[in-house]
Design brief:
The complex is a heterodimer of chains A (282) and B (204).
Chain A (H helix, E strand, L loop, with lengths): L2 H32 L3 H8 L2 H34 L5 H13 L2 H12 L6 H6 L8 H25 L3 H9 L4 H29 L3 H6 L10 H8 L4 H29 L19
Chain B lengths: L8 H9 L8 E4 L2 E5 L4 E2 L7 E4 L11 H9 L4 H7 L14 H14 L4 E5 L7 H18 L3 E4 L3 H7 L3 E5 L2 E6 L1 H6 L4 H7 L7
Parallel strand pairs in B: 4-5, 5-6
Antiparallel strand pairs in B: 1-2, 2-3, 7-8
The chains are: A mainly alpha (282), B alpha/beta (204).
Chain lengths: 282, 204
């Protein structure tokens, strides 16, 4: 084969592979969106099942995200900056939910916090019956999605310029001021990206939620759970809710890309970057 | 402190700042002990009052100049910016400043801490030759006005002798000689010192 023909063949082969991969990824989404006429689809968004599921999803995911960010950020910061014996074990524990099948996670939560479970007696004594409540949904989301945030947050904090934290120390800042005023703003880009991943994972969460919280309409039935419960009863409506989920996920993806782009600072100002007097974002 | 790269000058500076823990020895300022390996004493960096300027000045890029100073001083200190001549840059971000301006802001911020000693790591390393001379003159003026003890790390004997009352020559973590610039040039303790100080006479 002449060299020219060889290169042409390679280009065609590459194009075919790319087209196949793209088609495989995009076809299910297109199929869902085009399954029904647009009018029917939009009506499907407004049914009681759909609206209840949206409310449950937004509320539980919002609370879970707040918990993940509020507790996860200081935890990630500590883990990133502190070296202690057993640190690698802690990191493994943090990463375990990432590889655990969600249904198994749900089972674990049930067995740990359910009425008959490990902490069931203690919680019951405090008047808390967690399983099959909205609290259980939040717990499932935090367990499954939290580690996605933690992994990204730890990496973001580890990637910070040590010198800036050192300087903060010499300027008299204790660990709290260093974390709040220096590390977190500087890591904001990475933290935001990690939060977006965790939120998206939470919105799509199914296995742990259905086992630990059940699928009770208006209470614990999130959007993915609603899709599943409607699947063999009313396929059209299941598909409508599915499209709604795709829309929400796409919105999360796009807005996080837009927002996070503006949050990322370079954490060190290189010597070659010397501005005489005009403005330039670092 | 002068010496070749890797001699241990920066580590020494960081140890004085409290950012690195020496294996042995003592560090004290004006009789107040900061570190004593034998006694197991180590005052954390946050409680030593030092003004530490690392090689790239370590300004917080997400804060304005004024906010950088406020971080150190816990309140607004516009007079510090005036003292070093950057008051007009109070609302600028570090990324918008020239090297010389950044150095002055870093100095103002360090002063916000009301330090008892200044620690400067290669303060001119990031600057071109022309800026270096201007900034050096400004720094010399600031240092003499402040009358604060200062430890300065540089690889240039010329710069050291222009700024310092005494120079420590360090090689491989050891102190070879501690003397005035003139004395170092006249009576180098050994060949290494002679090589580092060069044959040129120190600046007057």
């Amino acid at each position: 084969m002449r060299p020219g023909a060889g290169r042409a063949a390679l280009t065609i082969a590459a194009a075919v592979v790319c087209a196949l991969v793209l088609a495989f990824l995009v076809l299910p989404v297109i199929a869902l969106i085009t399954y029904q006429p647009l009018g029917t689809l939009i009506k499907g968004f407004g049914t009681p099942v759909a609206t209840e599921a949206v409310l449950v999803s937004l509320k539980t995911n919002g609370i879970a995200l707040a918990l993940i960010l509020g507790l996860g950020t200081p935890f990630a910061y500590t883990l990133a900056r502190l070296r202690f014996p057993g640190r690698s074990i802690v990191i493994t524990i943090v990463e375990l939910p990432l590889v655990m099948p969600p249904a198994v996670a749900g089972l674990g939560l049930l067995v740990a916090f359910g009425r008959m479970g490990l902490l069931g007696g203690t919680l019951g004594g405090l008047g808390i019956d967690l399983a099959f409540t909205q609290g259980a949904v939040v717990a499932a989301l935090a367990f499954v999605a939290g580690p996605f945030y933690l992994r990204g947050a730890i990496a973001a904090f580890e990637g910070l310029d040590e010198t800036l934290i050192d300087v903060a120390r010499t300027l008299g800042a204790g660990p709290l001021r260093r974390m709040l005023l220096v590390a977190t703003p500087l890591a904001a880009g990475g933290l935001g990206a990690a939060a977006a991943v965790a939120f998206a994972r939470g919105v799509g969460e199914f296995g742990a939620t259905i086992l630990f919280a059940g699928s009770l309409r208006g209470a614990t039935q999130t959007l993915p759970l609603a899709v599943y419960s409607l699947f063999d009863v009313n396929l059209d409506e299941a598909i409508a809710i599915g499209v709604l989920l795709i829309a929400i996920s796409t919105a999360i993806l796009l807005s996080s890309k837009l927002l996070i782009g503006t949050w990322t600072y370079s954490t060190s100002i290189s010597p070659s970057h010397d501005e005489p007097s005009h403005s330039a974002p670092a | 402190m002068i010496g070749r790269s890797g001699a241990g000058k920066s580590s020494l500076l960081r140890a004085v700042a409290g950012l690195e823990r020496p294996q042995s020895g003592r560090i004290s300022l004006g009789g107040e002990p900061w570190f004593d390996a034998a006694a197991g004493l180590e005052v954390p960096a946050e409680r030593r009052r030092v003004g530490y300027l690392p090689q790239d000045y370590g300004l917080f890029p997400h804060m304005t100049v004024a906010a950088n100073v406020r971080f150190a001083a816990r309140r607004d200190r516009p007079e510090l910016l005036e003292q070093v001549g950057v008051a007009h840059l109070a609302d600028a971000r570090p990324g918008e400043l020239s090297g010389g301006e950044r150095q002055r802001v870093a100095l103002a911020r360090a002063l916000g801490r009301e330090p008892r000693v200044l620690l400067l790591d290669e303060p001119f390393g990031a600057l071109d030759a022309i800026t270096r001379r201007e900034v050096r003159a400004a720094l010399a003026e600031n240092l003499s006005r402040l009358a604060l003890p200062a430890l300065l790390v540089t690889h240039s004997f010329e710069e050291a002798s222009a700024l310092a009352g005494r120079i420590a020559v360090i090689e491989d973590g050891l102190l070879l000689q501690l003397d005035t610039p003139a004395e170092l040039a006249r009576n180098p303790a050994n060949e290494t010192v002679a090589a580092l100080t060069g044959l040129a006479a120190p600046a007057p």
